[in-house]
Design a protein that fits this description.
Belongs to the bacterial solute-binding protein 1 family. Strands 6, 7, 8, 9, 10, 11 and 12 form a 7-stranded mixed sheet that branches. This protein has a 3-stranded parallel sheet with strand order 2-1-3. Helix content is 40%, strand content 12%. It contains 21 helices and 12 strands. It has a domain of 208 residues: Periplasmic binding protein-like II (D-Maltodextrin-Binding Protein, domain 2, 3-Layer(aba) Sandwich), CATH 3.40.190.
Length: 463
């Protein structure tokens, strides 16, 4: 999954070929650079295009799909394979999985014979900067205007959740379909709140009052993974989004001047400054990793913990029965907030691409269309325990409490959803600003210092 582990910083166009010559890629890549097919031209459909076959797939053309063997497993891909086979029975479909995407597939990209569909995910994903710079990815724009698999009266684009196209757009081209959809922020236990008679507040003053009640009850209001302080990014950005609006978040994402130091953005950070200033962060949090911090939360030592959609599944049997965790919406800072309480940080993840030099690009587009069918998306939710980018897919009846809360929060948020893309734009900057947030949580720096230093780092990264 790419939800938490951003790819490395984008490289120059030559990076793709150069990396394929490294020892991890092996002798195959070395041979591939010596006169092998280097075409980046999309495969030509040979079948008849019609409403049921919008990309003109040749029914007998073989299709190869490679899936990242990560936290979502491989079970979810079986339904789209069956759907594709149902329409193109003569096609031989080869589906495999690996955790070594770069090592296995980068030589094939260079040789010009990549798979037709690639789930380019995980810590060993192929660098997107290299893929985009080499123009190695097929534009997925035709997918957006094609009739959806489950309802031909609706286009595929109309079935997508907010931000899916934006996150998958590089250099002005929609080239990455992110299949999962997650919410980010912080978590709390609804059963604990019911036991204590607490109500989750919508205003910041009431939120501080709740934190005081937690501390009085012997529960630290907050813990966080000090070893990975970027977890705080999503929550603090949520406060900024509500107080300052999407324009400021866009400036942060685009590494623009005066983004972090915007007056309303700093005001949001100053509001949260009360948490460490009052000693409301669990002692020792600075040394915790993500699962340690989450265990402190599950054990009732802290009322809130930052994290994304994966948290509930990640902790598995460690989640106490009846804990009933739910995603938090950041409280409104004041009456001048630009966005409503229901706003939410959310983003598509789990990227899929179609190589331009693949033999069956029409089949690749058709396979993505099958993945985004209602059947494929609902199967993904059931198997992976997270939402799909298809906004029409429903939850299974046995969906966990946290997932139900995310689905409800997204419905309430509507279009008031934003994402953070600094992680994919500049991973070093993401890490450096996250370290500042760790110091902020420890009380070592104040809000104004965080804003000024984050902007200084941004300006340096922009060059």
């Amino acid at each position: 999954m790419n939800d938490r582990f951003p790819p490395s910083r984008p490289g120059r166009r030559s990076v793709l070929a150069m990396l394929a010559l490294t020892p991890v890629a092996g002798a195959l890549a070395a041979c591939a650079t010596g006169g092998a097919r280097q075409s980046t031209t999309a495969g030509t459909p040979t079948g008849a295009a019609n409403a049921g076959n919008p990309f003109g797939v040749s029914s007998g053309a073989p299709l190869e799909v490679v899936v990242f063997d990560g936290g979502y497993g491989q079970e979810y891909i079986k339904v789209p394979v069956d759907l594709y086979r149902g329409k193109h029975a003569a096609a031989k479909i080869t589906q495999s999985a690996t955790q070594q995407i770069q090592q296995s597939l980068q030589p094939r990209f260079v040789a010009g014979d990549p798979p037709d569909v690639v789930n380019n995910s995980g810590s060993n994903a192929i660098d997107y900067g290299a893929l985009v710079g080499d123009k190695a990815l097929l534009s997925l724009t035709p997918l957006l205007t094609a009739p959806s698999w489950s309802d031909p009266a609706v286009t595929v684009g109309d079935t997508l959740r907010p931000g899916v196209v934006q996150v998958g757009t590089h250099d002005g081209q929609f080239v990455v379909l992110n299949y999962s959809y997650g919410a980010y922020g912080a978590w709390y236990s609804t059963s604990l709140f019911e036991e204590k008679g607490w109500t989750y507040p919508q205003t910041w003053d009431d939120y501080l009052g709740l934190c005081d009640k937690m501390a009085t009850a012997g529960i630290a209001p907050w813990t966080y993974p000090g070893q990975f302080p970027y977890y705080m990014f999503w929550w603090l950005a949520s406060l900024i989004y509500k107080a300052a609006g999407p324009e400021v978040i866009d400036k942060i994402n685009k590494l623009e001047p005066n983004a972090w130091t915007d007056e309303q953005a700093v005001a949001a950070l100053r509001a949260f400054e009360a948490i460490p200033a009052n000693g409301w962060v669990l002692k020792g949090s600075s040394g915790l990793n993500h699962t340690d911090a989450q265990m402190q939360f599950l054990n009732g030592k802290a009322g809130f913990v930052p994290g994304g959609s994966w948290l509930e599944n990640e902790m598995g049997d460690s989640v106490p029965k009846g804990f009933d965790m739910a995603i938090c919406r950041a409280p409104s800072i004041g009456k001048d907030d630009v966005k409503p309480f229901g706003s939410l940080c959310a983003k598509a993840g789990e990227p899929y691409v179609i190589p331009r030099s693949a033999a069956n690009t029409a089949g690749g587009l058709e396979f993505l269309r099958a993945m985004l069918s209602t059947e494929g998306a609902e199967n993904f939710i059931a198997k992976a325990g997270t939402l799909s980018s298809n906004r029409n897919a429903k939850l299974p009846k046995d969906a966990k409490h946290g997932l139900v809360s995310i689905d409800a929060a997204l419905k309430e948020a509507g279009d008031n959803v934003f994402g953070i893309t600094v992680d994919t734009r500049d991973s070093r900057l993401w890490k450096d600003i996250a370290n500042l947030m760790g110091r902020f949580m420890n009380g070592d720096i104040k809000a104004d210092q965080l804003a000024k230093q984050a902007q200084s780092l941004t300006d340096k990264a922009r060059g």
